Structures are given as structure tokens and as C-alpha cells.
Description:
Blueprint: H1 4-13, E1 23-25, E2 28-36, E3 45-53, E4 59-65, E5 69-76, E6 78-80, E7 83-85, E8 92-94, E9 99-102, E10 107-114, E11 123-130, E12 134-143
Amino acid sequence: MKNLLPAMAxxxxxxxxxxxxxxxxxxxxxxxxxxxxxIGTGRxxxxxxxxxxxxxxxxxxxxxxxxxxxxxMLHETTVTDSVAAMPHAASIPVPASQTVALSPGGFxxxxxxxxxxxxxxxxxxITLTFEKAGxxxxxxxxxxxxxxxxxxxxxx
Length: 156
Ligand SMILES: [Cu+2]
């Protein structure tokens, strides 16, 4: 029995990279959906993910809803004369046969009005609305406050 302990410690220290969960609606699929743990609910949380359009028609992400936040929005990070700003993005284009990333420094979701703190290791649901593909339910992984990229690996 005591020989098991070193092996278990190793497993905890080096978890295997898990495959990204993929969510699909028609020609649109979403993976690598993640957010960061929050301190309380006073500040907005981020939302990052990858959208792939396998179809022949351009589509666009129009918005999102989630029970995790009362006012989720789409933002774009822009830098003009070294001043960063985050204007509201009315929609995010997802051209035919392309993958678009919502990632740090670019397009992202901003979850304003968190209904509860986001806790590292937990998940929450979001519903994305696309112009052509309609709605798509996606599960978001909550990573550490310092995370810079998804913790899962594309299965491609
Ligand atoms: Cu923002």
C-alpha cells in the first residue's frame, strides 16, 4: 500500500493534458473555451475560445448569454498610439473554412456582473448565438488567475 503514494504524488504533479471538449452546431464548432478564476464578483471575468467554421458560408458570432454573468459582452482589444482600449464588438466574423480565436489581446468575451465568483477547476455553461448556425451551448473551464492559454490540447 505505501508503494502507491509516490506514484500518486507524481500523477498529481503532472496531470495528463486533457483533450479539448468540442461543441458543434451545424458547420460551427467551438473548443478551448476557458476563463480565469475571479476574486469575488466586483470585476468582470474574461472568456476565451476557438471557433471553427467548416462550412462554405461566412458566419458571425453575435453574442452570448450565461447564468454566470448578468451582462456578458463581446469585446475587442485594440491598441492605438500605445493606448489599449476594449470597444464593444457588435459581432465577431467567422469566415468560411477558417478558425477564429477569442484570445488574450484580441477578441474576447467580457463577463460583466458575475453572479458568483469563478473558482479555479470548476466549469460554467454559456450559450453562443451565431448569425447562421443559431445557438450553441458550450462549457467553459475556469483556469488559474494567471492562465494565458487553454489547458487542453486540440484533438486535431
Ligand atoms: Cu473586455
